[in-house]
User: Fold these one by one.
Assistant:
Number 1:
Amino acid sequence: MQWSKEEEAAARKKVEENSAERVLLEEQVKYEREANKYWDTFYKIHKNKFFKDRNWLLREFPEILPLDQKTEEEAKELSWDYVKTNAANCFSRKHCPIVPEEKNYYQKSSDSSDGQSKAESDFANLHSEEHRKGPLEADLFPGSKATFRILEVGCGAGNSVFPILNTLQNAPESFLYCCDFASGAVELVKSHPSYRAAQCCAFVHDVCDDGLPYPFPDGILDVVLLVFVLSSIHPDRMQGVVNRLSKLLKPGGMLLFRDYGRYDKTQLRFKRGHCLSENFYVRGDGTRAYFFTKGEVHSMFCKAGLDEKQNLIDRRLQVNRKKQVKMHRVWVQGKFQKPLHLTQKSSTPAFALLSHS
């Protein structure tokens, strides 16, 4: 749906009102420092029963599948680009996928727990100084024999992991990595009956710490999935996270992004006193959320050296018929590709090159 000028003005006014009073600086520091505590509490309470499986994921992002598993024609029909181009009003069509509300939060933490140490012990041999300095040898990392590799950042309890694994059953050459900085979430994934270590590697990782090694070398991923994760990271850390993830992609690899958009109903519902900084809020459980514009998303991923293939605002109207309440949902969705050939600027002046030709 498209918003009227009046609706957008009303949303802007609401944000001005709920952001007029900011959280005290010392409280903001606490939310950053103790982010893992809020997450661990969340998973102790909800376990894997809070979020619904993202069965819409492959409809929005067919790039998750290897090309030999889905023809280019099928991918075109299922992709958002096709729907948007061939429908004057996609949201009025019955086959248009419904995307549930997300509240996935992913934060940096300076603390660690016994559970986290246990989850990371599987990769203890990979965390040595030797592996920090150089690429891992082919026989030292999970998924080394795969020909198609995916990483989901902020996997939570596996609501994307298991729909993807279910689809990849017929693609044994594919491998899925998934990480979260909450050790409890990773344990939920690894204890799930559908978890297959032969095709999936779940590990504890804080994406905000770019000094931490991954259990695989840089430049080998075909897909990085970043869905409702970046919004929960402090805005000052976002660019560094995207820069690091870009290095993990192979040339031609895709980073797939979906997150909260500016003036989503979640933003409008915040009360005064919950605003941390411009368009960045803290919820009652201590987790945080940022609300993006299309321009911010473009700037962030392009600064990381990726080419924009898709960047759109997804506005939808959800109606609670029982309560007769209309809710305006706003999401930003993007697809960004690592260039096949990275161009390097020559330090030799042009006239010098000409003189040698």
Number 2:
Amino acid sequence: MAELQEVQITEEKPLLPGQTPEAAKEAELAARILLDQGQTHSVETPYGSVTFTVYGTPKPKRPAILTYHDVGLNYKSCFQPLFQFGDMQEIIQNFVRVHVDAPGMEEGAAVFPLGYQYPSLDQLADMIPCILQYLNFSTIIGIGVGAGAYILSRYALNHPDTVEGLVLINIDPNAKGWMDWAAHKLTGLTSSISEMILGHLFSQEELSGNSELIQKYRNIITHAPNLDNIELYWNSYNNRRDLNFERGGDITLKCPVMLVVGDQAPHEDAVVECNSKLDPTQTSFLKMADSGGQPQLTQPGKLTEAFKYFLQGMGYMASSCMTRLSRSRTASLTSAASIDGNRSRSRTLSQSSESGTLSSGPPGHTMEVSC
């Protein structure tokens, strides 16, 4: 009987000569990712057509994870490294995913005709209900980067009952002021559109270092066949309205929010300011060291850990094993509660490549965790 069982196992999951079970598992995971290409749909909205790709099947009583990318990217170039990361597979098995491409940003998109009026970011947010109605999805957990983070925030303000949580990476909730507008115009006189967008996506230190990642994304944006479309999306982002967040006021995000930014990233100050305007009992702030301007590309492992704990805090995946980041965070919050009593539970998770210790700041300051 034992021999029969061995034969069945060998036939069911054969190992290559010299291949370990761990390597076989990794190969199986890679093959499954390659086979799961998703289903792409397009739906007409009052502001034009929008394309999105759905992965997985809806789970009962669970929201969909809906992503929205930044300027210069599409859903694949913005989120693929994160969602193909090994530890992320435990998460995506439990949720259906909807990856939205801004109009004209999808692969193979035709260039819009001269004079085309591209939707504003507010109008892009107003397209999302059409997507959810088409799919018959009632609630979402949103993950947005840059312009995509703004769009999901605007949608959440307009439709709070349909948003269970938000992960906002590099969000700038403020409209451009006169000084910003003037600086943008001056930069446009000396820099190409692609260079301005790269400066939006990555820090100057990263651009100067010209790593393999920077070379890859510089090539993607500079040689994009839809660069004219990208410029339209870029213009809409620069003409965004102020979200007018106000802590304790009527205009705020009602759902749990995780704000994410890289240390010394181009939008670090904007995200810090956004954190100061949101409800501290609903908001987590994750500042990631050594991650540059695009944490989901450079640190998918750390971001996956944080996202898993964010979901657990919302009551999902309670049986999932806690990661090193979430264990550290739990310890820090417990320590903070014992020291500061009923103080506000606004949290900061500061990730470092160096090993650090837990420490509690003085009253009124957020907790920092190094891991």
Number 3:
Amino acid sequence: MHWITRFSAIFSAALAMILLSPSLQSFSPAAAIRSSHPYADEFKPQQNSDHSSFRESPMFRNAEQCRSSGEDSGVCNPNLVHVAITLDIDYLRGSIAAVNSILQHSMCPQSVFFHFLVSSEIQNLESLIRSTFPKLMNLKIYYFAPETVQSLISSSVRQALEQPLNYARNYLADLLEPCVKRVIYLDSDLVVVDDIVKLWKTGLGQRTIGAPEYCHANFTKYFTGGFWSDKRFNGTFKRRNPCYFNTGVMVIDLKKWRRFRYTKRIEKWMEIQKMERIYELGSLPPFLLVFAGHVAPISHRWNQHGLGGDNVRGSCRDLHSGPVSLLHWSGSGKPWLRLDSKLPCPLDTLWAPYDLYKHSH
């Protein structure tokens, strides 16, 4: 059996090189990996946020054809690509890997502005980020007060989904500067293996948000029987063709969001949830209630989600068919925990090259 294990490791490494090479991004690897490797246990996250915990990122610089990023003009420069991502002590390692992946695959990495959202004090957080990415000039840290949303949060199927920072995406239009008209929101448990500018340039048409949609998914399961039996609630989808979409990867038109006051609409559904219990799954259902059926569709390559398994066991998953630009470990299983536990899923090896945590190798 040892030769099988060795072959599996070699094959995973070869596949990682294919997937992560910008020149081979049209490769479709779904048929190449089929796994049933179980992952049932969760492991305690790393809590150390000391500077020495992370290695310095590889060098990056803009290509000659990049337009000036205008570092001196700050966040309002029109040539910037804006990316918002959360920083949480339990997911800090994932966030840093996500940023590293974006910088490594971008033709114009110095033209990406990172908006980091935090809801708790992590000692020396900004200096930690700057020491890990010493050449990253375009960044800002925004404090999201937990009390903004705490009273609106209902219990969920997994405690991690109840954290206030999960709801910070609802308030991006308020947190970010008014001059920021568009932003890409990304979860902390993903890596980008393509140039982020391609996602940035996605056309939204008349829509406020864009995301990969999955219309084959059973949409009814995201709400309770009480919701579907009550016309006060299910009528919200009348004359709409709602499809499931994952809120961990979204392109958001902040100008439209502010104009139509979508934060208030989301909060209204959260208030109803506190009284009527119309869903079970954290911050996703309010987004579905407000936007499902009104989403600008984005290619599925930009959210190969579900790699963390389900919300209970975190079992290993396969890739969806088709090309890959972004790998997303949504679900309860996180690649850094599984790698440290020596019980990784095959696809976790695709996350590992972007991990900057010092004691992980």
Number 4:
Amino acid sequence: MDVAHCYLEGNADAVEFCPHDDYQHVLAASTYTLQEGEQPIRAGSISLFDVNAEKGNLELFHRVNTAGIFDIKWSTVGANAAPLLAQADADGYLRIYSLEGSSNEEKPRGGFLNEVSGERISSSMCLFLDWNPLATSISVGLSDGSVSIITIAESGIEKLQEWKAHDFELWTTCFDIHQPQLVYTGSDDCKFSCWDIRDSPSERVFQNSKVHKMGVCCIAKSPTDPNTILTGSYDEYLRVWDLRSISRPVNEASICLGGGVWRIKPHPFVSGLVLAACMHNGFAIVKIGEKKPDVVETYSQHGSLAYGAAWQRAKISPGGKSKSTTVATCSFYDRLLRLWMPKTDICCI
């Protein structure tokens, strides 16, 4: 069910709902636009929206212009601190913003992003970022195949270590939420790897180079099953891995989603349910079952590359109009941001 939509001022590539209590109505959307010429400019922006799906509201309340952005992520909830938004951009910068105001208690709800730290961590482009469970560190994937581990402190951000993890662009990196000393990486070189960052330089725990037929775009650890991790690839497959033998994970199941699997987002409350952005084939909701993954629902109301996808974390209200969860999605060239609710009763999956 479509709820609302709008067009951004640049090519839309990432959307993220704030997961923190009192801020779960806040949606961030980022853009990356290449302005060609003798000296090309990679421009971007972050837009903040106030979302109320039951009222059909998608209201812009703040925007900041930036370099071209590849990824944004809100800090994890376990940090017990005010929400922070991290940005990975084409100029090699990692920037951290605090969200000022904008809580549910304020009327009208507004707020703004305040940059609290920003450092150029690489001469390469920053392609992806992930917070550790305590929001004290960030892993950053770089266009030269390296990964950086950044620590977040009151004094600013500091690079703890950086190493050449892959041969080509490192599209994705992911902390293990159950064992945060482990960091997973995936790259255009078709390799899926794991590293133990307690060592410096980090020790490689495993590397699988045989299963993915094209580049690895995204990695997501199951929030409820410590032995399960998911990968998505340009080869159009979402794969389920068994990590019980951490040095040799087993690809136990896979499903073709008909387009390159650019993002995977586990549902915040429903175990085994994931939202996937499938590039040339829209978006899909997939149930990771005991035997094999199944597509529960697809969404094809975008006319361009499906890149950004996010679940709203707000609890499903039994007395509300819908028993589903609000979803935000965005597509690249048509600059389209959409809010919708799955037709499927999420509570019954």
